[in-house]
């Protein structure tokens, strides 16, 4: 094994396990989201609907911030504090709870930390369902 390959293997070992974790492994309840709504879309999920790990997801690690989100399949919905979206959801846009800024997710996991700071997005957008700036 050459030095470059060794550094790559060491780098992969340093990545936290939750990066590869299936976000639906959370036992959080989604009573605020109609779990059947995604199946009620005529003809099933849209062509843009992506499955895990290529879909957008949300990990709300805050204790009191709700995260406003939007998807092609469900429209507007909120992710409560301490919750993670299930893997069969494809979240397209989320709004930062502290600033109101909208973000396009693509295949990223939008994470809100305990203080309401965000990470894990493709780009900022002027509003939900809009192109990147």
Task: Provide a compact summary of the structure.
With 133 residues, this protein is α+β, with helices and mostly antiparallel strands. It has 2 helices and 8 strands, in the order H-H-E-E-E-E-E-E-E-E. The protein has helices spanning 3-13, 37-40; strands spanning 57-60, 67-71, 75-79, 93-95, 102-104, 109-112, 118-119, 123-125.
The computed structural class is: alpha+beta
- The overall average pLDDT, rounded, is 74
- Whole-angstrom Rg: 16 Å
**Shape type:** globular
State the helix count.
Answer: 2
Strand content: 15-25%
Give the biggest beta sheet. Answer: 5 strands, antiparallel
In helices, the fraction of residues equals 10-25%
How many runs of DSSP E, i.e. beta strands?
8
Strand order of the largest sheet: 3-2-4-5-8
SSE succession: HHEEEEEEEE
Residue windows where pLDDT falls under 50 for at least 5 positions? 4-47
Distance N to C terminus: 43 Å
List the helices and strands and how they pair.
Blueprint: H1 3-13, H2 37-40, E1 57-60, E2 67-71, E3 75-79, E4 93-95, E5 102-104, E6 109-112, E7 118-119, E8 123-125
Parallel strand pairs: 1-6
Antiparallel strand pairs: 2-3, 2-4, 4-5, 5-8, 6-7
Report on the architecture of this protein.
The termini are far apart. This protein has a 5-stranded antiparallel beta sheet, with no helix packed on it. It has a 3-stranded mixed beta sheet with strand order 1-6-7, with no helix packed on it. It has a domain at 48-133. Strand 6 and strand 7 form a beta hairpin. The protein has 2 helices and 8 strands, in the order ααββββββββ. With 133 residues, the chain is α+β, with helices and mostly antiparallel strands. The protein is globular, with a radius of gyration of 16 Å. It has helices at residues 3-13, 37-40; strands at residues 57-60, 67-71, 75-79, 93-95, 102-104, 109-112, 118-119, 123-125.
